[in-house]
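For the sake of clarity, the format in which proteins appear in this thesis is described at this point. The fold follows as a row of integers, each naming the local backbone shape at the matching residue. One such record is shown here in full, so that the layout can be seen directly:
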Amino acid sequence: SIKIDKILSYLIIFIPITLITGPLIPEIIIFITVLLFLYIVFIYKKFSYFKNIYSYFFLLFFVCINLKSFFVEDIFLSLKSTFFYFRFYLLSLAVWYVLDVNKKFPKHFLNFFLISLFFLIFDSLIQFLLGNNILGWEKIHPLRISGFFGDELVLGSFLVRFLPLVVGLYVFVNYEKFKFKKIYFLFFIIFFIYVGIVISGDRTAFYL
């Protein structure tokens, strides 16, 4: 069980940054994470994770979005996205379980994610200034930067959507020892991510 707990922690830590590679690898990691979590639940009878108001609310939401799919023109296409939405519910329960069994998980997740984001933005800055990133990939748009995302111009969208998670985790991890140095570093993190959003050329991300 301890080994599985560690594996679960590492899998969840890698999910956000693997989004850079496209949907395939994150989906595989989510699938393995969910399977391991369900194995733990049924082997060790941890059914309390399903018996709560969050689960009841999700069940109602899940039924509603799937019923709605029957009233659209392409039913099967709609059901393809709504029916498998439950994997995110199970993933959130897996995160909850990891938070319960691994008290150091938030700090480890934050550190790994910050290093990954800094590396991503640094690479984007190189592409912005030199025209090529560290892998030699050229800009695909004269006014947009993609960095490690290649042909997909989603760098700004990626950064702005993960910014609240980074800030929230940083405050959570450092709440009891939130000194001035910690505040300055938090502002540096926000500014550095903001720079990445600006050079991406994504106007929607910039406004957000």
